[in-house]
Amino acid sequence: MRTSQFFNYVSNLKNRHFLIHDIIILLVSPTIALFLRLEGDLDLVVGWQKFFILTLVLLVLKIGVFYFFGLYNRIWSKASVDELARIIFSAFFILLLEIFVFVLIKFLGIRIAGQFPYTLPILDTIVSVSFVSISRFSSRLFEAMGYRMENKEGTTNILIVGAGQTGLIVLTELLRSPSFGRIVGFLDDDINKIKLRIKGIPILGGISELKKTASKLKIKKVIIAMPTAPGSKIREVFEDCRALGIDALTVPSLQNIINGTVNVSSIRKIKLEDLLRREQIETNTDDIRLLIANNIVLISGAGGSIGSELVRQVLSFNPKQIVLLGHGENSVFEIEQEVLGSVSHNNKNIISVIADIRNKKRLEQIFEMYKPKLVFHAAAHKHVPLMEGNVEEAVTNNVLGTKNLVSMAVKYDVDKFVLISSDKAVNPTNIMGASKRMAEMVVLNAAIKHKRAFCAVRFGNVLGSRGSVVGIFNKQIEMGGPIKITHPEIKRYFMTIPEAVQLVLQSSTLSNGGEIFVLDMGEPVKIIDLAKDMIKFSGLKFGEDIDIEITGLRPGEKLFEELFLETEQYVRTKHIKIYLAMNAAKYVHPNFEDLSCNLVEMATKNNSEKTEMLRLFKEIVPEFNHMEN
After folding, report:
1. Catalytic (active-site) positions
2. Average pLDDT for the chain
């Protein structure tokens, strides 16, 4: 048996093995204590039979104390401060019990070992607990030694970039999986950490020294353990790795790390989203927790990109119940299975409901049954070209569906209603944008009329969503190109899905009713530059391996999406990344109810005229300027 195998064998000892070990040790510990007390002169001992009976009594008491403090239901190879504290408390109680027993013996006048040694309880406690502690923590020691032995035998040298808490988590996981490779060191820009060690692994220098360190140590893999670092820093490391021909990997999102779901299998390759990542958003989680904890939350469109992330983040704030409402059964099933498998909630906490938000009677059943106090409305048709050819669907889903949800929210006394809106609702040039602007008006109208804390949150494109340009470009690259772009000057705002949802939750805490919040999306990205980056990211060359084809703007498509207008008043809220659109939040057409009902009625007729529907759209949303390219 190899040394590392022996260490791993010892580290895998079970609690039943420790029980047997404890019985043996506790049977001899009083004798050892007596030997120490008498400085080895056991000739002074008389009454061995009674002393053996005393040893058995103490054995039962000690085992009972250990059981009481949970020393037989722990995984000792993962022992930490909590386990050490339990052993210390056990020692204290054992000492008290032994003193009581010896005082009782003295009181009864029972002669056991010469003159009654008053220090014997202390010595016996020290001996007993010392051996028990050594046996327990040696399990963790041997596990670490075993992993380290196997790690030294690995053939793939690994460098971890980031020596913070995440780097420690990654190191711990990699030490448990030596087949992944051999960890040779860390890089970190904190000068106070350089030349220190984490679990014996040295911090070799700053991140700028990656090329030099990787070449010197023959590094094959670099793991970026900086979940909050901006995309510019990730890009810097990625470019260095690519120049050296090294695999660049990273860890999952910060949310996964918080939830404790990081393991070797979740360490993944760099994605485009990582390179575009902005600096970490600071949110007031106390306010969000106060809003969500112990409340019933309903999320429409729960299977979609934004809806599913809302489910994940809302669950982290311990709602009493969360209702996953969606029309597509497969997507709802997927998010349901994901959260049931990763959080400590049971089936009663997570309710999956398949329903069409256009069906008002079905919604009434749902609200009557679950009585949610918070509603996040993320269900919507969002694809611009498709909605140009399916105006009826845009109206019935985005407008009628929102009207139905809002009316149920009013009827069943929902405390807060949050509509997920879009930057396309600003000066809309397409049906989808106009329908989302009308959805905003539905929410604002109810907030004003019923004095409710209902609001809308606008933001642009999110990376990784279904049908996003990134996914489309990836498929086109896989097929050998070309990448198709509608216009060389077209620009779009981008935000990661977790970032957007964080700000949506923060916005919900700021709402008093009737607001349209606008998220700060940063700087817009030129789509042609994004395409070139993706070609480069894939290890290919633009113009040689993959071409870019300009196809022309699609119906209703803008060159530039607008978040802020010159004629609009925007006020920054107490959160630096969230603005309040003042004018838009105040405007609702005076005849909105009648006009919107006419539009919905027209959309539900099979013989509806698109021209007349567009006229009604224009009347309800004056800034609507339809572009039919």
Report:
1. 424
2. 79
